[in-house]
Specification:
625 residues; alpha+beta; Beta-Lactamase; seven-stranded mixed sheet; 21% strand
Length: 625
């Protein structure tokens, strides 16, 4: 066992990924780790790759770099072509020998422009200099746990932290519509999303009035057009603590401005989902409208959908499906889920393309027509569209929708009916005249669900919740010795702290606080319920973003993929284990013992295997994207 606080191993070590994965202890035993000066140990490959990545990120100028513009170079596609900084910090020919003001580097078909200048992503007044104005270094260090908006004191005297302690208390809809880019409060928002056309016309903004942000949208469009005119494509701009991420989808431009320290890959994936939500409403055929009229105003087509986009963006801070690209099932007895699946299959055989029974964002049962598969991202977007639209709750509805991953160019028609406040049925068909047929199908389904007590079991499961780390049983007496350095504390003191935390109810065995388990084959995931000490919205968001960064690190093309990773910081011990069959992400007490944490993760995997009939939808068609 390596003596380290953090470790990772390359996926290429496994000669036959189809074999049954070895216990997690052996995964770490076979990892040769190197400890960096920051106390983080990595494998040889991961260490070299991360050092190379850091060199690319930091640049080679003599002074501090305040701004980075990263663009793709369409003229250089050879990924093996790597050139170090031209001039290594000196001015390029033709720059007047200014002594390192601008450095060009080319690596992996990308061009990065590093500028030693005041960091501001636009000229229209956006405060991009090193985070929000007036922010201290301490507050910037805690950005990942802060709310995405500034704290405002309400009439009751409580700040944003008190108002946002639970996801259920979040109020859907457009926020702060009176703001514009001249408002100090607007500039202090930690995370903005924008949708605009290639002519610079604003389509959607998370905060503020789109019409008042026309000048700011034009600035964003100018940045994209300037880079495209040079034959490249802008990917992101770094300005102090802010990261401006761009996504170009034909005539539609999507931009995220964030100082939450989320990885670039995560922000791009979020922009992809925002674009997918727009396609679900309008289909990709809207491109033809822009071809006919470049100044086409699509705002009327999206009228009333602000609540849909705001709900989706809010889910980026609590729903793991947004970065795992998997869906979760409501825990149910196997017989109950089978009863629901049987009636849905009977309906699917009568001409329904997809039949979904859901409780909030969780799946109860899912059935598709032969050779038809539903992508988890489509399920996320479809569920968000239905749950955030109040009209679906008031009466049965028949609405045209588009599934971006299934067919982005065509409409399907969705019949939606709520059985109670949280449980609803979705029937998807290609026929626009199938309303009455689908209504008859719904009546048949409802009759069977009531007779088989499926709906009552759903309500019971909703009240009982899911898996809890406190229910996991691990024999801590079988520990054979400490293999990790914990702030130079004796092993006996560490083990005593772990046992004490379990006794007083702070998490589960070995200081386990939370876990995420993703089945690779089923594209489904299960997560434990939040419990003390992760029982506030702020703490849950911090953990969510820690998982997000860990996921990107494990799957990064630049420094991964890895099999295992063990990280320790002031907030958690994070352990990740990736095999061809599953992915496990676990959070422990920051003083947790490494050997006990590894043993606990093995127990979690066995626990999930024992109850998979209740927490997963087995027999679902595997997805092949």
């Amino acid at each position: 066992m390596s003596s380290s606080d953090s470790s990772s191993s390359s996926a290429s070590d496994d000669p036959n990924p189809k074999l049954k994965p070895q216990p997690l202890e052996s995964q770490f035993q076979s990892s040769l780790t190197l400890e960096d000066s920051d106390g983080v140990a990595r494998t040889d490959d991961a260490s070299a790759a991360e050092q190379q990545q850091e060199q690319q990120d930091e640049g080679s100028g003599n002074g501090s770099v305040d701004g980075v513009v990263n663009v793709e170079d369409n003229g250089h596609r050879d990924s093996s072509d790597r050139e170090e900084g031209i001039g290594s910090g000196e001015a390029r020919d033709g720059d007047g020998g200014s002594g390192g003001g601008v450095v060009w580097r080319r690596a992996n078909s990308e061009v990065e422009l590093e500028v030693e200048a005041p960091a501001s992503p636009s000229s229209s007044g956006y405060a991009g200099e090193r985070g929000s104005s007036g922010a201290s270094s301490a507050s910037r260090a805690d950005d990942a746990s802060e709310e995405d908006e500034i704290e405002e004191v309400g009439n009751d005297g409580d700040g944003a932290e008190g108002a946002m302690d639970s996801q259920a208390e979040w109020t859907p809809g457009k926020r702060h519509v009176d703001e514009d880019d001249a408002s100090i409060s607007w500039r202090k928002r930690k995370k903005h999303f924008f949708i605009l056309s290639n002519s610079g016309k604003p389509i959607y903004s998370r905060y503020g009035d789109e019409h008042k942000l026309a000048g700011f949208s034009a600035t964003l469009q100018a940045i994209i057009s300037f880079v495209e005119n040079g034959g490249d494509r802008v990917k992101y701009v770094k300005a102090g603590m802010h990261q401006v991420v761009f996504l170009v989808k034909g005539p539609i431009y999507l931009v995220c401005i964030s100082c939450t320290e989320e990885p670039f890959e995560s922000l791009v994936a979020q922009l992809e989902l925002v674009y997918g939500q727009m396609i679900l409403i309008l289909t990709k055929s809207l491109n033809r409208c822009f071809e006919k009229n470049p100044k086409f105003d699509m705002t009327p087509l999206l009228g009333g959908t602000d609540v849909v986009f705001s709900a989706l963006i809010h889910s980026f801070s609590w729903n793991p499906a947004a970065f795992l690209h998997a869906y979760s099932c409501l825990p149910l007895p196997y017989a109950t889920r089978q009863a629901a699946g049987a009636i849905l299959q009977d309906v699917a055989d009568s001409g329904v393309l997809f039949a979904l029974l859901m409780c909030k964002h969780r799946v109860i049962s899912l059935v598709g027509a032969q050779k038809a598969s539903l992508h988890p991202d489509d399920m996320l977007l479809l569920g968000n569209f239905i749950m955030s639209s109040e009209s679906f709750r008031t009466s049965e509805s028949f609405s045209p929708i588009c599934l971006p991953r299934y067919n982005p160019m065509a409409f399907l028609h969705a019949y939606v009916h709520y059985f109670d406040a949280d449980t609803y049925l979705i029937l998807l068909t290609t026929r626009s005249d199938a309303f009455y047929h689908l209504k008859d199908c719904r009546i048949r389904i409802e009759t069977v669900l009531l007779k088989s007590n499926v709906l009552s079991e759903v309500q019971r499961s909703t009240l009982d919740g899911g898996m809890r780390v406190e229910d996991l049983s691990v024999d801590l007496q079988q520990h054979t010795g400490s293999t990790s350095r914990v702030e130079d504390k004796p092993h006996t003191e560490t083990l005593e702290r772990i046992r004490e935390s379990s006794l007083v109810g702070l998490g589960g065995p070995a200081g386990l606080w939370h876990f995420l388990y993703r089945s690779v084959y089923l594209d489904q995931y299960v997560s434990s319920e939040f419990s003390s000490p992760i029982n506030t919205h702020r703490q849950q968001k911090r953990l969510y973003r820690a998982y997000q960064k860990l996921y990107v690190s494990m799957h990064s093309k630049g420094i991964g993929p890895h099999k295992t990773q063990f990280r320790r910081d002031e907030n958690y011990v994070l352990l990740c284990w990736v095999t061809p069959d599953f992915e496990l992400y676990a959070a422990f007490d920051p003083l947790a013992d490494k050997a006990l944490a590894i043993k606990t993760c093995n127990k979690v995997c066995q626990w999930v295997k024992d109850v998979e009939n209740e927490i997963f939808l087995l027999g679902a068609s595997p997805f092949s994207w």
